[in-house]
C-alpha cells in the first residue's frame, strides 16, 4: 500500500505544472534503424504570469526503441531564448516580490526521476526577467544550464 501512495505522489509531482509547450519543429541528429531517431526538439511556451513573454527552448530527445516507448533518459542539454512579443504585463505577485525563483515550465526527460525545468527570476533593480533552464534528477542533477534575459521595455 505504501508503494502505491509513493507512486501516486511521484506522478502528481511530475504533472503538477499546467504550462504546455507547443512543438515548433525538430531536426534528426542520429539515425536509428529501430524506433525514432535521436533529435533536437524546439518548443515554445508562454510565461503564465507575464503577459506577452514567450520562451523558446531546444532540447535533446533520445530515440531508438527505449525512446519510442518513453523509457529512455534524455541528456541534460538544452538552450533557451525568451522574447517580449507585445506589451509586457507583470502579475501582482511578481510586482510584489512574491514570485522569486518560480518554476514556469517543466518537461519530463526520463520515465520517472529526471525533468527539464525553467525558473523565472525578476530583477526589479534592472526591470528585467531572467529565465534559467536546467535539468534535475531526484538524486543528482546536472550543472548544465542556459539563461535568457528579457528587459521590460515600452512596446512600440
Break the fold down into its secondary structure elements and pairings.
Blueprint: H1 2-14, E1 22-30, E2 38-46, E3 50-61, H2 64-69, E4 78-90, H3 92-95, E5 102-108, E6 114-123, E7 128-137, E8 145-151
Antiparallel strand pairs: 1-2, 2-3, 3-4, 5-6, 6-7, 7-8
Derived from helix and strand composition plus strand pairing, the structural class reads mainly beta
Count every helix, treating DSSP H or I runs of 4 or more residues as helices.
3
- Give the beta-strand count: 8
In angstroms, what is the radius of gyration?
A: 17 Å
Biggest beta sheet summary: 4 strands, antiparallel
Average pLDDT metric: 82
> Strand sequence of the main sheet, in spatial order?
1-2-3-4
Please mark out the parts with pLDDT under 50 across 5 or more consecutive residues, or reply none: 1-17
How far is the N terminus from the C terminus? 59 Å
Reading the helices and strands in chain order gives HEEEHEHEEEE
The fraction of residues assigned to DSSP E strands is: over 45%
Morphology call = elongated
Q: What is the number of domains?
A: 1
The amount of helix comes to 10-25%
Amino acid at each position: 500500500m505504501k508503494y502505491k501512495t509513493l507512486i501516486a505522489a511521484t506522478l502528481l509531482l511530475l504533472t503538477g505544472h499546467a504550462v504546455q509547450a507547443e512543438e515548433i519543429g525538430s531536426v534528426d541528429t542520429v539515425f536509428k534503424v529501430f524506433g525514432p531517431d535521436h533529435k533536437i526538439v524546439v518548443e515554445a511556451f508562454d510565461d503564465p504570469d507575464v503577459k506577452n513573454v514567450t520562451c523558446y527552448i531546444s532540447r535533446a530527445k533520445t530515440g531508438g526503441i527505449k525512446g519510442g516507448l518513453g523509457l529512455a533518459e534524455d541528456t541534460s542539454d538544452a538552450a533557451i531564448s525568451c522574447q517580449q512579443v507585445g506589451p509586457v504585463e507583470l502579475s501582482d505577485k511578481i510586482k510584489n516580490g512574491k514570485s522569486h525563483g518560480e518554476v514556469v515550465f517543466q518537461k519530463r526527460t526520463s520515465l520517472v526521476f529526471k525533468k527539464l525545468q525553467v525558473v523565472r527570476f525578476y530583477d526589479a533593480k534592472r526591470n528585467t526577467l531572467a529565465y534559467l533552464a536546467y535539468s534535475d534528477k531526484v538524486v543528482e542533477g546536472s550543472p548544465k544550464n542556459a539563461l535568457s534575459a528579457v528587459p521590460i521595455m515600452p512596446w512600440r
